Amino acid sequence: MLAALIGLGLLTGLLAGITGQQAQAGTTDLGNRAQPLLAEAETIYANLADADTTAAQAFLAGGLEPATLTDRYNDDLTRATTALTEAARLTPEGSAAAESVRSISTGLARYTALVATARADNRQGLPVGSSYLSSASELNRTTLLPEAKKLFDSAQQEVRDGYGDAAGGWWSGFFALLILVLLGALLLAQRYLSRHTHRTFNVPLVAATVLTLLLGFGTATVLLTQNRHLNQAEDTGSTPVAQLAEARILALQERGDEALTLAMHGSSDEPEKRWQAADPRLRAALSNTYLPGATSGSYDAYAAAHEQIRKLDGQDGNYDGAVKLAVGKDTTAKFEQVTADLSTALDQRKDAFTTEIDKAGGGLVVLAILGPLVALAICALAFAGIRARLEEYR
Amino acid sequence: MRRTITTLATAALTLALAACSGDASPLPGSTAQPAPETSTSAAAPDTSCNARASLRPSGALPEPGNMPAGSYMATIQKRGRLILGTSQDTLLFSSRNPFNGQVEGFDVDMGRQLAQAIFGDPNKLQIKVIGYDKRVSSVRDGDVDVVADTMTANCSRWKDVNFSTIYYEAGQRVLVSKDSKATKIEDLGGKKVCSAAGSTSFLNIQAVTTKPIAVAKPAFGDCLVAFQQNEVDAISTDDTILAGMAAQDPYAKVVGEKFTEEPYGMALSQNYPEFTRFVNAVLEKNRANGTWTATYNKWLGSFGAAPKPPAAQYR
């Protein structure tokens, strides 16, 4: 009987430690690796899309590319490269994400080289510069962006899996079962002793039972709190982050396609078809509760300008007017209001996630350390309680 | 979806594909493979017609701004602009000037001279950049009024469109790096030679007896990129297009004699023969009054004195 009780107690302690440690590790991984990886993947994806859009607009503007666009392109690439280094650190060796990071790194080096040549040619007035720019754009759209999307998708999957791991999985269920078995064993032991001895209560065993109950309730509280914060982190953090990120990329691609239609000078209507297909999706995404109500209005203004650009270029045959409107201050300001709102909302949601994950991780360390100690105390009390009775038989 | 983007990006930005005279691309509807008559034309040109002979002008040119009622020129005049289909990456003929974003060159000036004759204003011109494989179909379908895009007048195209009289005589040559020992296309056996996909230039490379490896790129600008990145050893297409490339790369030279004949004509709709006659009358006038020579000197003068304008031939 003694051996069984002590065995159960030790097992409970072990499991309390493992449950706490697992949930702790899962939560830490979610907060310190999976979510940052998602953020870096989003940065890479969005900045590559923006670089392509910027390069196309600089080309459209004609002449020496405007300094603001050059700066923006450089910033895009700096941010993408920095995020890529971070992402490389956050991806486990051999994973699909690591593979994507590798091919983006390789492609990005080639992309920057092509754009650099395009600029050098453009500076000398050589039309082949635009061919270099198109090669670069093709590389971006056919290799870099799809890989960035893959990285973003696998980071999202890791976050989803991360919630499962963080909840502690079946360890917590097993632990709950064990607590019940231990409680039952303690009660049985006490009933046996009260029938075979003169004492109704065995004080150390009663104390052990109370401690077991406390351990059970304490663990439940910690795990439920963690669970609530994890749900919060998902609902107000990672889910809207993914939605907003996709909306921002959609917006950037619309703007890029608009420039592309003009740059192709009427030789293809594919980019415009993509614009039209993206429009309803983006409108739906902009009704996100975490965006200010005015964002939809800003987008409407931009979309109206886009219609005007298409009318000028398509129906009126006023190509120069269309280009002027497309790269002009007004249209740019309207569009950038949309992306700025999206960026702000994204940052807020990332912060919300971090806060909730920090809270979720709170009690878990205590559980991992205190759980086994309490279990040892239960064992000691059980030993003390039963040994006293055994000695009476001698 | 990705595939679409690929295709698009291929065409992307400027890149207005090629537009080599040697375009062998079939009309839409049979895009899967080159039409039989064009693929054999590499070895044996279609001589079923005289591709250089166009419709004879009828009477004197009408006054600019006063086109005869009911004619297609009157329709253009009413619209207020002439729509020219061309490319934007063929330096000297029609390319985008990186300094101001305008498309300009010999072919564009051909369009401007027509606008001058219709409106009295060479700037009443809308430039539409078209894919090299859309040159026949965009004229036939009425998307543009005229195509001037280093386009060879040949018999298979005469089946779908009218051509003006010849305004430029080109021929296929080969561009190699400055230190290359090759002096003609035959010296490039086993070497990679680039041309635009679906062009007759491309088919002509394949027909060379010493078997160079023909490499297809979506546009000639892409060929120059591949050449500068050492992906190919040479580029072969019309001398005019090669001249524009050599002008952009001091480490390239054009070698060998012309080994094909590529007479350029403007493509026009068969529905309005009066417009073809009008265009030929404008060409006739500009050959005689020195405008053609001035245009040649403006764009191609650095290659030597202007030759005599190609003589008009009529059916």
Automatic annotation (TrEMBL), chain A:
Assigned keywords, A-Z:
Membrane, Signal, Transmembrane, Transmembrane helix
Its transmembrane ranges are 170-189, 201-224, 364-386
Extent of the signal sequence: 1-25
This protein's name: Secreted protein
Automatic annotation (TrEMBL), chain B:
What are the alphabetically sorted keywords of the record?
Answer: Signal, Transport
InterPro entries per record: Bact_solute-bind_prot3, SBP_3_CS, Solute-binding_3/MltF_N
**Is Signal tagged as a keyword?**
yes
- Single GO BP term: amino acid transport
Tell me which residues make up the Solute-binding protein family 3/N-terminal domain.
81-303
- Give one Pfam hit by family name: SBP_bac_3
Q: Does the record bear Signal in its keywords?
A: yes
This entry carries the following GO cellular component terms, namely:
extracellular region; outer membrane-bounded periplasmic space
Chain intervals for the UniProt region annotation (Disordered): 24-71
Q: Where is the composition biased (Low complexity)?
A: 30-48
Signal peptide range equals 1-24
Q: Which PANTHER family match?
A: ABC TRANSPORTER GLUTAMINE-BINDING PROTEIN GLNH, AMINO ACID ABC TRANSPORTER PERMEASE
Query: Which protein family is it in?
Result: Belongs to the bacterial solute-binding protein 3 family.
Q: What is this protein called?
A: ABC transporter substrate-binding protein
